[in-house]
Amino acid sequence: MKKRNIILFIDDEKVCHTLVELIIPNFTDYKLVGAYSGNEAIQLAKRYASEIALVLSDIMLPDINGYEVYSKLKEDEQFTHVPFIFQSGLISQEEELKKHVITDVALLYKPYKQLDLLKAINDALKPVN
Questions:
Q1: For the CA atoms of 107, 76, 129, 57, what is the dihedral angle to 10 degrees?
Q2: How many CB atoms lie within 10 A of CB 15?
């Protein structure tokens, strides 16, 4: 069985990819796989299903939104236990999360600091006792 050592990062902004590419491989033991749209992310998630430890997704994407990516992946039993972190530049997204009844997902507001991202990743990947 492969080790779950990949973080799937989904964002349509190149600058966000550049930032996360500087942080995750250098400050964690995880590899990064990046997608620029929801549909691309779902394809990558299927390809790396047994290796994905965490999904870090923007909410506003050019095709389907982060909530739809979450729903589609959580339908697959390979992803039921994979934690998600949403990121957004819009403060109003907290209310949207409640509307979608997604309670097990952390929400990071952009722009965030490196330490905030690392803390969110560590919190999301803590083993559940």
A1: -20
A2: 10
Confidence of residue 1 (pLDDT cuts 50, 70, 90): low
The helix/strand count (H/E) of the chain reads as: 5, 5
Q: What are the tens digits of pLDDT across the range 2-46?
A: 689 999 999 999 999 999 999 999 999 999 999 999 999 999 999
Name 126's Cβ contacts closer than 8 Å, sequence gap at least 6: none
- Cα–Cα dist 100/122, whole Å: 24
Q: Record the pTM.
A: 0.90
Other CB atoms within 10 A of residue 66 CB:
28
Provide CB contacts within 8 A for 76, sequence distance 6+. Answer: 46, 49
Q: Which neighbouring-strand residues pair with 87? A: 58, 108
Asked if residues 8 and 56 have their Cβ atoms less than 8 Å apart, the reply is yes
